[in-house]
Amino acid sequence: MPPVYRHIIYIWFPYLAASRIQREIGMALPLVVIKNIRGVDIVAAGCAKAAAYGLVAGMRLTDARALCPNVITEDYNPTADHADLHHLALWARRYSPLTAIDHESYGIWLDIAGAEHLFGGVRGLLADCVRRLHRSHLRAVIAAAPTCGAAWALAHYGQPSQRVITAPKSAANHLDATVYITSRVRLRQYLARLPIAALRIDTDIADHMQQVGLRVIDDIIGLARAPLAARFGTDVLLRLDQALGNEDEIFTPVSPPQPRYVCRQFAEPIGAPNDVKAMIDYLVTEMAALLQQAGLAARQLRLGWQLVDEMVFAYDVHLSCPSRDAALFHRLLANASDRINPEFGLEKGWMEALDCSPLAPIETALPRMAGQQQDGAAARDAYASLVDRLVARLGYGTVVRLAPKDCWQPETAQSFELPDPEKLFDESGKKASWLGSPLSVTTPLRPIRLLAYPQPVDVVALLPDHPPVQFIWQKRTHKIIYATGPERIAPAWWLAPIGSQTRDYFRLCDDQGAGFWLYREGLPERHETPAWFLHGFFA
Fold it and tell me: What's the pTM?
């Protein structure tokens, strides 16, 4: 059987899991992702800084802390990692429609046969890929070879001259020559010097083979196949044949999400307001039926129309939670006809459902008895309906809510985000625990108004570590008749800028009944020069 050679590119993202977390929390220290295996915390992945300390996947967390005591740990989240790989695979379809995901090693394969000429050859394609990944701040290792196994092996274990690493420098001079291999001899030469683990075999089997002296691929190429399979399993021979091209390796390409689309074209252009409204009602009804048939729900609807002069326009409607409710669609698009200027007439109208996700069939509930309270699911639906109506009227991005953050720093303890009923209610429709839980008697009170930036004030205190007896703010003197505190809040050392100091917060009430929240920055016991700031107001 002649060797099966293709043009395969493998892109490996060794720091994908950790880099996603670093982007979310903005952490600059070494970070590793851990997972618990049989009661032992094991490093699943790490960032580039962690790798510089020698922290690698498969290492015990205790050993990792011995090498890097200040390492930050986060839990392994395979769902989020798979979603990131899926998005990257869809992005890679710009180079080839044959793109597959390697979930185990955080990589993607591309079969670029017949597509490389669109980018000026393999070198041009690789250079464009490297440039785009670097611009997106994604660290990756790229290798090209005639087989899937060889590309994977070179990306993980190849020499620097056989790989491309996304870096500021151009990759044009570091492209892998194996993409031009046409003979079995040359491919064997490239793979012979790589370790046994480059064949993508089980780790335990690879360790066992090394113990008996089989350390590189060249050690097993010339061995008798039957005894080798009997001792180490047939998977070793299969992976070897796939890497050398003796056995074809078929992967399943990712498929882009299919758009949910309904359209109505007119024999004669329309322009009357009633006709435009009838078109929208028709598209809404058809789209709801299409989603119901497909078992999907949409977070975004796009209404489009084309004029007789071939000008195309679109109007987007965003939903707070996935839905396929026709009545809801009609309410959100009730005034959409006002946004359409038919001019000399409309030739076509369409509607597209975006960001679709599976949804269980709609159940028809019995009418609620008089006096029966609204359950959690109904409350969630009512909340979502209110948000959707506000967004439809005010525009996407204008309706937000305050959300708590796991941080003691007052200025970073909350953030604005889009109202999402799925975050406010659990699967049963009940409110999230952090919404309904009462405050503990030991929970410190927070002001009803927090200044965007703390303002300096002049303070008079009896002793350096005592609360103020009076302070001056905006040229007005406030005499304090009641004070509580201090509440000590230390800065987030992994995020705070250099020079940040610990704060002591005090609740103050002046002789006019006004409540203030002041803090002293700098601790007298540490011989730091204290400075006072006003940060908020109490009712």
Answer: 0.57
